[in-house]
Amino acid sequence: MTPGIIERYAASLPVSATTPRITLGEGSTPLVRSSRIGPSIGLHQLYFKYEGLNPSGSFKDRGMALATAKAVEAGAKTLLCASTGNTSASASAYASRCGLRAVVVVPAGGIAAGKLAQALAYGATVLTVKGTFDTALKLVRQVADQPGVALVNSVNPDRIEGQKTAAFEIVEQLREVPSELFIPVGNGGNITAYWRGFSELARTQGSSRPQMHGAQAEGAAPLVRGKPVARPRTVATAIRIGNPASWESAIAARDESGGSIEAVSDAEIMAAHRRLAREEGLLVEPASAAGVALLLARAREGTVRRDQPIVCVLTGHGLKDPEALTRGLTIPAAVEPTLTALRRAIG
Ligand code: F0G
Fold first, then answer.
1. What value does the CA radius of gyration of the chain take, rounded to a whole number of Å?
2. What are 38-44's contacts with CB under 8 Å, separation 24+?
3. I need a surface site. Which of 40, 121, 160, 339 has the fewest CB within 10 A?
């Protein structure tokens, strides 16, 4: 049996011997070496941390395993969250696993089809609100103090603790610390978690820490602009967030690491999304391509360290957003069931 993140990293997590080892087999995701994108820009040590292979298809499962375990330990009966889709899918999965109720609040019309389907299929109570993710998060924070309810957004410290394990895995897999890490940024939780993970290793093992490069979508880039965005817009629905909850800690990760948080356009995001599928065989959702889009932009500017290992975090699986996968492509018309017709169609 594959141990989950609580079992593997108990010594580094806020758990006791009695904390339930809840798992769906999250973590232990592959670090895939780039075969074509890296070499095409002169990077021979480019790697992708493929977090889309987690049980509900995103990195959220790492934090959700721990947040759920701590919620169960505290006697909670309901997991509550606001979400752009992946947190709601993950919370719904872990709730069903543990016999808890999940109540997930998502922006109406604002999340990818696969994620909505997941929450419904796992049996969650799905509520859609007319507004952005920011509105939804503000609302759920105000009802989270009910008895028996655990708020499992990344404002819950256990989420960040669970997600930091991805940094541990990267160092184990690479057998060294990458010199730069590229990661999409929405609510700011994940960049905070990685930075904590690398910082803990630095403290306990005396290792170096990577430069952290966070990518926001141009139309939803509050951390780049330095002020909240009232109406965030981007094709990357997962990071369509105007007022990140982990604002300060995301900025701290950038500054303490000597890194950057920069904006990439939707066109750059979709170009990187397509290259990952067509040149690497890696299906990701648009938000996950934002880090790669930023790497490509920095490589064009010549500000990437070419001779050092670089990691891009691919946060969510491509099948979550089938509409994005087929955008601009045509589904071929059916061919007659004859050899002649087939040969002609193959060309
Ligand atoms: N990539 C994906 C696929 C995401 O789903 C998210 C966040 C991020 C990146 C950004 O991570 O918020 O920690 O900075 N999704 C949240 C959700 C907001 O509700 O699923 P972050």
1. 20
2. 38/310, 40/279, 41/296, 41/299, 41/304, 42/299, 42/306, 43/299, 43/304, 43/306, 43/310, 44/306
3. 339
Q: What pLDDT was estimated at residue 2?
A: 81
Rounded mean pLDDT of 176-191? Answer: 98
Phi-psi group of 43: left, alpha or beta (phi > 0 → left; psi -120 to 50 → alpha; rest → beta): beta
Q: What is the mean pLDDT of residues 240-266?
A: 98
pTM over 0.85: yes
Q: Is 85 in the pocket of ligand 1 (CB under 6 A)?
A: yes
Give the atom of ligand 1 at the shortest distance from the alpha carbon of 250: 14
Q: Does residue 288 line the site of ligand 1, with CB under 6 A?
A: yes
Q: What spacing in Å lies between the alpha carbon of 89 and ligand 1's midpoint?
A: 12
Tokens (6 digits) for 284: 């990701």
Cα distances from 333 to residues 79, 256, 269, in angstroms, run: 45, 54, 29
Interval between CA 185 and ligand 1 midpoint (Å)? 7
pLDDT tens digits along 308-344? 999 999 999 999 999 999 999 998 899 999 999 999 9
Residue nearest to atom 3 of ligand 1 (CA): 316
Cβ–Cβ under 8 Å, residues 54 and 29: yes
Contact 13, 161 (CB under 8 A): yes
The reply to whether ligand 1 has any atom less than 6 angstroms from the CB of 249 is no
For residue 31, give the 3-state DSSP assignment.
strand
Q: What is the pLDDT of residues 31-87, one digit of tens each?
A: 999 999 999 999 999 999 999 999 999 999 999 999 999 999 999 999 999 999 999
Beta strands 31-33 and 260-264 are unpaired
Q: How confident is the model at residue 1 (pLDDT cuts 50, 70, 90)?
A: confident
142, pLDDT greater than 90: yes
> What phi and psi values does residue 236 have, to the nearest 5 degrees?
-85, 80
